[in-house]
């Protein structure tokens, strides 16, 4: 198999941050065979490899990457049905929002709240992407991947993916071993659009005859307002989407934070008690916090330092405003993290991946 390996390939234009130097080697792959051949090439060269999809959720060093970038470009798709369930198998290179748009246009339920999320289908199970009350762990039927150890094609059931909040088998215990080539989703013909998240409840204000397209339109408008959208035709910022995960802390720690907030802040929708059915009756319960809320209380929306800042309407997005460097973004992120920890003793975990 002939691979078109390119050298010193610029990466900044392949990421939504628009930051980063060149890759030593770069290859675009469209099938499972070329994926494994690319891995073997990296091994022969004695360099690491990194799998690139849509370039979101990624910050690349200004020095670039001294290895092989494997750019997944498989866009083959297939649809089958079983009663009221529709199965869609999509290549890992399919743009995520195009998949969502297709499902909504076909009146398939379960993915409408995931509109506007940047990236490709292949990245969706890795991060277990989610937004506005939905996540892919409730949709994925099967993940097909190449085992980099031997080149075999491996199929993972939903349970085998080990999904949890922003986590899966693929970014935890098996990180770097499997390269996802396609994903099979199970969607339903019948149902009711999901409007259970606070922002959507506020948008629609009352129960009405809401369609899937109504929800998609609302989500896109909300994400655009927050500066979290990367679609053509909308206002866009150079960012990686959500830079941080929402932290989960103990109920006791939460009570301490509540003690230092004023009454107005206490009444806002910024925390969610977590059920823990497997815990002992005497175990401390947990609470998920809005990372955006914590950052907002420390800095405020739109806070800037030089060429880097927070999005004007959402503090989870760190924005490259004016050709910022990798170091400037990292220094800014550290300022955010250190300040939040100093005030609330909460550690912010980065959702964005760092490549250097």
From TrEMBL:
What species is this protein from? Candidatus Magnetominusculus xianensis
Q: Say which enzyme class the record assigns.
A: oxidoreductase
Does this entry carry the keyword Electron transport? no
The protein's required cofactors: FAD
Compartments where found: Cytoplasm
Q: Which GO terms describe its molecular function?
A: UDP-N-acetylmuramate dehydrogenase activity
Domain of life, per lineage? Bacteria
Q: Where is the signal peptide?
A: none
One of the Pfam families matching this protein, by short name: FAD_binding_4
Pathways involved? Cell wall biogenesis; peptidoglycan biosynthesis
Keyword hit for Cell division? yes
Q: What InterPro entries does this protein map onto? A: FAD-bd_PCMH (IPR016166), FAD-bd_PCMH-like_sf (IPR036318), FAD-bd_PCMH_sub1 (IPR016167), FAD-bd_PCMH_sub2 (IPR016169), MurB (IPR003170), MurB_C (IPR011601), MurB_C_sf (IPR036635), Oxid_FAD_bind_N (IPR006094)
- Function of this protein? Cell wall formation.
Matching entries from Gene3D superfamilies are given as: 3.30.465.10, UDP-N-acetylenolpyruvoylglucosamine reductase, C-terminal domain, Uridine Diphospho-n-acetylenolpyruvylglucosamine Reductase, domain 2
The record places the active site at 166, 242, 351
Instruction: Provide the primary localization.
Output: cytoplasm
Give the enzyme's EC designation. Answer: 1.3.1.98
Reaction catalysis annotation:
UDP-N-acetyl-alpha-D-muramate + NADP(+) = UDP-N-acetyl-3-O-(1-carboxyvinyl)-alpha-D-glucosamine + NADPH + H(+)
Q: Keywords, A to Z?
A: Cell cycle, Cell division, Cell shape, Cell wall biogenesis/degradation, Cytoplasm, FAD, Flavoprotein, NADP, Oxidoreductase, Peptidoglycan synthesis
**Similarity-based family:** Belongs to the MurB family.
Q: Where is the FAD-binding PCMH-type domain?
A: 18-190
Query: This chain belongs to which protein, by name?
Result: UDP-N-acetylenolpyruvoylglucosamine reductase
């Amino acid at each position: 198999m002939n691979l078109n390996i390119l050298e010193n390939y610029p990466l900044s234009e392949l990421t939504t941050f628009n930051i980063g130097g060149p890759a030593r080697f770069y290859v675009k792959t469209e099938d499972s065979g070329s994926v494994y051949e690319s891995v073997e090439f990296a091994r022969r060269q004695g360099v690491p490899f990194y799998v690139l999809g849509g370039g979101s959720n990624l910050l690349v060093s200004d020095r670039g990457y001294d290895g092989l970038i494997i750019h997944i470009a498989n866009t083959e798709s297939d649809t089958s049905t079983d009663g009221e369930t529709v199965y869609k198998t999509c290549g890992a290179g399919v743009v995520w929002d195009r998949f969502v748009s297709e499902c909504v246009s076909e009146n398939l339920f379960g993915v409408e709240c995931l509109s506007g999320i940047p990236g490709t289908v292949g990245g969706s199970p890795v991060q277990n992407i989610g937004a506005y009350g939905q996540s892919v762990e409730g949709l994925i039927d099967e993940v097909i991947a190449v085992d980099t150890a031997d080149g075999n094609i491996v199929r993972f059931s939903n349970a085998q993916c080990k999904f949890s909040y922003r986590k899966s088998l693929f970014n935890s215990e098996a990180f770097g071993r499997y390269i996802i080539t396609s994903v099979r989703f199970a969607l339903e013909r019948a149902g009711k659009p999901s409007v259970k998240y606070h922002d959507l409840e506020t948008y629609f204000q009352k129960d009405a005859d809401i369609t899937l397209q109504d929800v998609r339109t609302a989500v896109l408008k909300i994400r655009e307002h927050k500066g979290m959208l990367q679609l053509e035709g909308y206002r866009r910022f150079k960012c990686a989407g959500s830079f941080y995960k929402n932290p989960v802390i103990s109920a006791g720690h939460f009570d301490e934070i509540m003690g230092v907030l004023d009454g107005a802040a206490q009444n806002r929708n910024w925390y969610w008690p977590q059920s823990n059915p497997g815990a002992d009756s005497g175990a401390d319960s947990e609470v998920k916090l809005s990372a955006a809320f914590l950052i907002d209380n420390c800095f405020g929306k739109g806070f800037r330092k030089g060429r880097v800042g927070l999005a004007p309407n959402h503090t989870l997005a760190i924005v490259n405003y004016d050709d910022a460097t990798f170091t400037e973004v990292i220094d800014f992120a550290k300022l955010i993290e250190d300040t939040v920890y100093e005030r609330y003793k909460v550690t912010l975990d980065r959702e964005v991946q760092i490549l250097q």
